[in-house]
Amino acid sequence: MTDTAPRPFAVVTGGSNGIGLELARQFGENGYDLLIAAEDEAHLRAAAAELARTGARVDIHAGDLGQEQAVDALHRAIVATGRPVDVLCVNAGIGLGGPFVETDLRTELQMIDLNVRGAVQLTKLVLKDMVARDSGKLLFTSSISATMPDPFEAVYGGTKVFLRWFGEALRNELKDTGITVTVLMPSMTETNFFHRADMDDTRAGQANKDDPAVVAKAGFDALMAGKDKVLPTLKNKVLGAIADALPDRAAAQAHRGLSEPGSAD
Question: Which CATH class is domain 9-259?
């Protein structure tokens, strides 16, 4: 009788809903066990029950990953599993729309803490072990917003630009190791993001959106293939290429047409 090989282990932040939940589902369906982290414990428990149907063992960790001590607590929970992290998906994030001079500063600082500072902290803690083992995969959820200036989402867009180039820079630093880094750059996706970001009255908020399961599958496939980045769907690849090629002023104006308050009218 031979021992069954242990299942690989993936950690997904923001794993209780939206793209994060669908990423976790991809890993579960492909033979991984999971630890999903988010702020709301009830949502995490519901997500874990759903994900367990894939055959995965699912651990949960509740905490505000915009706070230093909460990220440290998550890392301790990861270490306590006794399992090496084969994949880390840095996916947790929030957004906020509106004119910068009018939007809530406290929310924007929380956004920076979660989307940027928390992402850096958790990556640092987990990556050190990956480097020691010379094995692992990192996936950062950035955005198509990182291809252009983002009027009326100025702070959110800035955080996504950071994640894009942070991921690309780490990929280069680690190119001679057994660790790969992939950046996922979704466009408008059917989640509660736009409602929570106070963008229901924008063209982006009212537009037809991508299925988060499709976005997650594209991210998973790109990660497994060791690609540097992925824009899910052909439409988004074209939009991203155009945005990258446009002069910044023209790209900013194009984004304004989607994100300006009242643009849905």
Answer: alpha beta
